[in-house]
Backbone:
């Protein structure tokens, strides 16, 4: 699937670095956030999921991360790793996913191979719940804003995995 846009890789990399730095400043200045309704307080700036989301999400610069952005990114990871273009990743091809994204460096092939056939289909890979949305999409809307991360709703009691549509 092509969206018809051409990006200068250097400019895109610079924009991502600036965005990550700005998010870091925003988060650092906002203080601690309440974690997932369990009453624990921890600085969000130390959350690797938030930093990771900056690599694939908020593509419009609005401070909102969506499941569609994640799926486009996951699709690209899958397509780049599927060297023989058969629509499946074997264990060797899966290593390219692990090398392409440091948050997936320790990902387990078997976790993605839902039907245990020794290969991961595009659907198995892309439809696997993203831990960022499991943690932060409290309303199961496939949309998370930076504001909702920094200032979670009071009385937030969401725990456990969100819907599997991510």
Residues:
């Amino acid at each position: 699937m092509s969206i018809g846009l051409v990006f200068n890789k250097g400019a895109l990399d610079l924009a991502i670095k600036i965005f990550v730095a700005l998010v870091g400043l925003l988060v650092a200045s906002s203080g601690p956030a309440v974690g997932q309704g369990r009453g624990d307080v921890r600085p969000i700036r130390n959350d690797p999921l938030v930093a990771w989301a900056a690599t694939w999400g908020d593509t419009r610069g609005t401070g909102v991360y969506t499941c569609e952005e994640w799926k486009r990114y996951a699709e690209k990871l899958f397509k780049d790793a599927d060297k023989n273009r058969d629509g499946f990743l074997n264990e060797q091809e899966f290593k390219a996913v692990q090398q392409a994204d440091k948050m997936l460096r320790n990902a387990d092939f078997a976790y993605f191979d839902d039907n245990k056939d020794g290969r991961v289909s595009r659907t198995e890979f892309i439809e696997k719940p993203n831990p960022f949305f499991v943690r932060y999409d409290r309303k199961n809307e496939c949309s998370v804003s930076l504001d909702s991360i920094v200032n979670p709703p009071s009385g937030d009691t969401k725990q456990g995995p969100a819907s599997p549509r991510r």
